[in-house]
Amino acid sequence: MMRWILIALMLVVTNAFAVEEIWQFDNPAQQQLFNQLKEELRCPKCQNQNIADSNAVVAKDLQRKLYQLIKQGKDREQILQYMKERYGDFVHYQPPVTPLTWVLWVLPVLAIVLGAIFVLRRRTTQTTELDVSEAKRLLGEE
Amino acid sequence: MKSRLILVLPLLIFFGISIFLFSGLFSDPTYKNQVQVSRDIPEFALADLMQPQVIYDQSVFSGEVTLLNVWGVWCVTCDVELPFLSQLREQGVRIVGLYLPESVDADFGTKPLAQLQREVTAKLQRLGNPYQFNILDADRQYSIDLGVTGAPETYLVDKKGVIRMHLIGDINPQNWQTQIAPLYQELLAE
């Protein structure tokens, strides 16, 4: 009896694995593009999830669409354009530089530059102070 | 003077960040897809949900102001919306349904059409039928062209077949009064 239950359970488990979707591609480049874009495309229904991670219906549909587009031989730019045409810039995790978003690029650079200036200035003032004390010490010794 | 400024600076930055984050508490995090607005309704050739031999195309939108309402029997918010939409139909608003079937998973297959029709008929009898007719988007391909993210969603389409509003979420008396009705009236007059 126990054995039969065990076998029945095993059957259930293999079934569950069969549900997992398997995408077949013509070449490794297509596979790579698929893996890359499903991470980069954002699920429009979810709070901050890409279409690979989300189980929302629209995310599944967009993944299927992505697969179809790749199988049709569309390249990265064509696919991104297709998606943005329908779902807006929101759908891609890499926002384009527009008057609204330029701050995103400028701010980190500005922070690095200002930080570097700050550090450099501190270092130079410190070294001059050290030089003076060093000089005094040397003078005192003399 | 300069040293005092440096002392005050962190406080100012702190207040700046606080105000920014505080205003974020009240911002609307939902996605607003506006790319479809003022675009021609995408081309299609899709069957009627109840009479599969009838095929519709984008010409169903010409000459009349229409609400294209995306829905499904599986969608809970749509249940809430159906009675109000039915009221709108009684007031003379033309509403066309775009029916989204829930699953097109190849492993399980789609629901038989007859079963789907029974479920839809039962639901519309129970909650009211706002639709002139329902277009069946069997593989949800047309929904991707429309930028549909889920259900319910509604497109306000003008007499020339141009999308004038894309609403994500339900239509209720509040947003009908404040958001949709003014534009709807305007489009009727066009």
From TrEMBL, chain A:
Q: Which organism is it from?
A: Pseudobowmanella zhangzhouensis
Domain of life per record: Bacteria
What the protein does? Possible subunit of a heme lyase.
Pfam families reported in the protein's UniProt record: CcmH
Coiled coil segments of this chain: none
Which InterPro entries does the protein's record reference? C-type_cytochrome_biogenesis, CcmH/CycL/Ccl2/NrfF_N, CcmH/CycL/NrfF/Ccl2_sf
Protein name in UniProt: Cytochrome c-type biogenesis protein
Which range is the signal sequence, renumbered to this chain?
1-18
TrEMBL record, chain B:
Where does it primarily localize? other
Xref: Pfam families = Redoxin
Domain of life of the organism encoding this protein: Bacteria
**Name under which the protein is recorded:** Redoxin family protein
| Residue span, Thioredoxin domain | 35-185
List locations, semicolon-separated. Cell envelope
This protein's species is Pseudobowmanella zhangzhouensis
> Keyword annotations for this protein?
Cytochrome c-type biogenesis, Disulfide bond, Redox-active center
